[in-house]
Design a protein that fits this description.
single chain, alpha/beta, Lambda Exonuclease, Chain A, two-stranded parallel ribbon, 8 strands, globular
Length: 271
Amino acid sequence: MNYDITDLIFSEDKGQVYTSIIEEAIIKHGIWRNQKRLDGYKLERAFHASGIGNVCDRELLYQFAKVPSERKQTTQNMKRLDNGTYVHLRYDEYLKFSENYVAMNLHMYDEEHFIQGSFDQIILSKDKLYIVDLKSIKDENFLKIFGKAPEGYYAQLQAYIWMMNLNYEQWKNEDKKFELEENKKLVELFEKYEKYFPITKAILFFEDKDNQLTEEIIIDYDEKFIEKLKERLKSIKKCYNDNTLPDRRMNDNCKWCNHKKACGRNDLWTK
């Protein structure tokens, strides 16, 4: 599996020595980081839990088909993403000093529905396991939370709970779909914390990147939501197999879409 960064926007050459050197290094680091992330994934082609919410079916199809994003990538954006990564690393270090620490950075998947993802942490509190996902957001977005999980994040956390419990059941039933050698971290988790499964709750934890204020939202597993999601993913996968497109559903999110120009085309991938 390969990852490539295209259409990068560089700063204008103003004779700056360090700026040009560090921008090239940022690009190389970004390629390395994303390749390392993709190397850990089980499925070559799949939906990703972090990208299933708040987008239309057609955008999900383009993501699944690996149609390149039309959004220009800049070294400024890459540095902004790295700042978010460092927030995660900081909370990982904090949690290591807590007796509630269980696991970090676990990868899960469902081959039947072609979905995979990696979440940040698992904690144990009052005999209950919680999946935790950390979000670093701007102050203006932090003020809009009001104790309710945004649609995209809600879908992401629901998918994490679903896949974690599914992989647990596969391990417990010795299902051949769950390969022990490729899932050593999950096996260790299941063996040590088996009595706490299935997981029924997740925590969406926000930090305001401007002032470090925090807020957490507890999310209960929503089985009806997951059943609808499964049908949705199967439908989109069928469109991919049949080389057709889902109906176009225009909404306010279209202006943020990574495939606005591609929308309506089904000749952008080969199976």
